[in-house]
Amino acid sequence: MVWLAFDPRLGQELMLTLPRVQPADAAALEDWQREVRLAARLNHPHLAHVVEVGVQDHWPYVAVDRALGVTLVEWLAAHPQPTPIEAVKWMCEALEGLAFAHEAGATHGDLQLHHILVSEQGTVRVMALEAARDTGASVDERARANDRGMPLDPNRLRVQRDTSERDVLASGVLLQQLLTGQPVLEEPDTALVIARMTPIGRELVRLPWTTPHPISEALRAIANRTTSAQERQRYLNARTLLRALDGWRTAEAQDTGGPLAMLLDRMRTVGHLPAMPGVGSRVARLSAKDGQHTEEIADQILQDMALSFELLRQVNSAQVQGTQMAGSGPVLTIRRAIALVGLNGIRQAASALRMWPGPLNASGAQAMQRMMDRVRLAGHVAQVLRPAGYHPEVMFLVAVLQNLGRLLVQYHFPEEAEQIWQLMRPSPPPANAEPGTPEQPGLSESAASFAVLGVNIETLGAAVARHWGLGEDVQHMIHRLPRDRPARTPDSDADMLRTAASAANDAVDAVSLLPATRVSHGLGLVAQRYARAMEISVRDLQEAMQTARAALRSGSSVANARTEEAPAQGEAATESPPFPSAADAAQDTH
């Protein structure tokens, strides 16, 4: 409860927050006051300063100065239907305060709209930390705990963690209420809403399609993840939800520059990708052989994604600035880049790279290596599937660039990448589900990346490609075909390259992400989707996968790999997953 009161001693109005239940006895009252006073000592711009902690008629209260602002309930009464940007700003500031409190060991426990204050300047503060804590323990219970020399709850840290997660869930409920302009489940009390949601209740909470303002796909994914029916998909940490909402705000505020702005600082310090081990010695050997054929040099450089991307970045950025070949189109082959920069330019590009594994720890480096192997495999598959007349190097690079966003997220944001992959994994049915209930599907990659980063992974890759100077045709090609639409017959070279690269990436995803028992079915769906556009069959995909695997193992071109012994047909089904499995994670990092 929150009451507006006047304090004649101070001559000012105060807002008093009381717990829902009176303390059971004097000891419970003392415990409540102690915890609230400890929380009141926290100092943060988005936490309301406490004026007094006291008791009136056996009811404890925590008092906050009315001059700090009005409650969000009052604000909305005067300014109904806030825009999504306004709603997200409020929740971001509230989450900053909550995250600070959680990290200091304090929680709220009963977050409501009337616990969020808005000042005249629009600054948000959360008030009444710990005021909702349980006050119902009896004297005997407390005496027994004190006799043992331990707190009442031996699992205090777990209780604190659970309450922190409840704060995050309540924040999600409030976010949806702000976006829709209506109480969730027609119930203004977030505690009662949470009690009706799974797993406690049976209600499903999702953002409706009809809202006062249009809601972007990214923000919708974030809002729906906050109240997901699958507990493992929800945000379990205030900073994780804050990061996703802040990413969405950045993208919205800066338009096309937003996604790129998220990566620029990191790319300046640690590069776009780490160079593979031994890149320096390989470049030295290449430089020592001035008579070596450009195609052979290009094949060697293609084995290192970081060096390949750095060359493309350098030559295309230079062209954008008008310092090379003004008026020409973007460079999309390594051989042409070599012709432009020469062996000296290759050495400079290699020296600009961060050596493997960059800032990644051991597990992050392993995940990065798996990702790179998977992307190379897709590049080789695309080379095998390419229609006649298309250069294999261009085909390889288009397929690889379709994964640029994935590679960047895996390198620069490994923890967020792990969250995305975990959200994409299916989960077993709930424990209370009826026998025969199928497993619960995971999120799509797009929805998962929206929910974690606030932007689509593919959007990040496209923003970096623009930054590198790659033209509109290239940006069109490196957008994978949407999986929810049929692949139509290409009517241009750019469409053909895009379609072939998309088919290769879809096939590798089927082999890498699906359970072994469903790989054949997954490849069949890919073949069915691209049958008319590319005239391919399941057998074509299987043979392309075998040839690509041989090229990946040998580090040679697809043309050379065709002459090597092909792996057994069943090998595709035993491909190791490209990301750590859920069992590998020591704890949930949501």
Number of strands: 7
The overall number of domains is 3
Mean pLDDT, to the nearest integer, reads 84
CATH architecture of the largest domain: Orthogonal Bundle
Head-to-tail CA distance between termini: 31 Å
Approximate strand percentage:
5-15%
Unreliable runs: 137-152, 320-327, 565-590
Provide the CATH topology of the largest domain.
Transferase(Phosphotransferase), domain 1
* CATH C-level name of the largest domain: Mainly Alpha
Radius of gyration: 29 Å
Count of helical stretches:
24
What's the oligomerization state? single chain
What's the name of the CATH homologous superfamily of the largest domain? Transferase(Phosphotransferase) domain 1
> Which class best fits the helix and strand makeup?
mainly alpha
Major sheet description: 4 strands, antiparallel
Question: Strands of the largest sheet, in order across it?
Answer: 1-2-4-3
Bulk shape: elongated
Helicity range of the residues?
Answer: 40-55%
What does this molecule look like?
The chain is mainly alpha-helical and 590 residues long. It is 53% helix and 6% strand. It has helices at 26-40, 72-78, 84-103, 139-147, 156-180, 190-196, 217-226, 238-254, 257-270, 279-288, 294-302, 305-320, 334-351, 362-385, 392-401, 404-412, 414-424, 445-453, 457-467, 472-477, 493-513, 519-534, 538-554, 558-561, and strands spanning 2-7, 12-17, 50-56, 59-65, 70-71, 116-118, 124-126. The model is unreliable at 137-152, 320-327 and 565-590 (pLDDT under 50).
